[in-house]
Design a protein that fits this description.
heterodimer, A: 90 residues, mainly alpha, 3 helices, B: five-stranded antiparallel beta sheet, 9 strands
Amino acid sequence: MQPVRTTKTDKRAAAMRWLKSVGPLPTSAMASAESPREQPTATSLRVAQRLAGGLPLMGEGEQRVKRLAAKLDLLKKLAAEQPVREKRNG
Amino acid sequence: MPRAPQSRLLTLQWYIEGLGTLRLVVPSRDRLDAVDATWPVERAATAAHRHWLWGKLMEKKPEQFAVIDADGQTISLWCSAKREVRLEGRRLYRLDYVEVRPRLRGGMAGAFTLALVGARAAEAGCQGLVLAAFPPLKGFYARAGGAQRLPKGWAVERGLVPFVFEGSAFEDFQRVVTDAARADDED
């Protein structure tokens, strides 16, 4: 009896059969190092939602920095307009 | 910043029905941003992982890969904070996070990604693969040859299901990845 020669095509077909036999995924995430019971934080949800909606990311921290930067700008302008009065001793 | 992982698999290509020609890459920041901009809305509203952001998950992970198609679109991603664990006297590859693009989960992308992870594990000198699965995936992993058990010395988060791939199931992964590979001169 002649030994059956396995060709590359046969091997590839076998690989496809294996993939088909495993079947589709019931959910897109396949494994996790964290508990699925763990609820997403408000921040991670907001970031995900803004990214999904194509909106720019701006959290409370970022807004606070912007407000502080605006204040700093204003202070710089005021300082430029009003010469600093030197305090003289004696 | 960990060094990008080195792998022979990064030089190969595979042809998978329904997905076309696929390659393995180490994901760039731009790729992860693109994934985080598109995948969350494709996930089921009730999915436990709906909040996942791959840009965050991949941070400082020494082991991180993306499967991409011929157009450069991301098909799946996986990462691990620690590549291997020694359990029951053997070196096992620890798969921390893995996801297939949500709209592609109905095809062979999941099974092929799992096979690639297995081939990577073997390349890294591991004798098996351990992971913690979401409960709806028990059937999927059982069909892929996994054993639902907790190896001695390992712990998984509450609510997840431990799976181990070893022996012939682990060898199947390598066989599938080798046999589905395309030669450079194939059209």
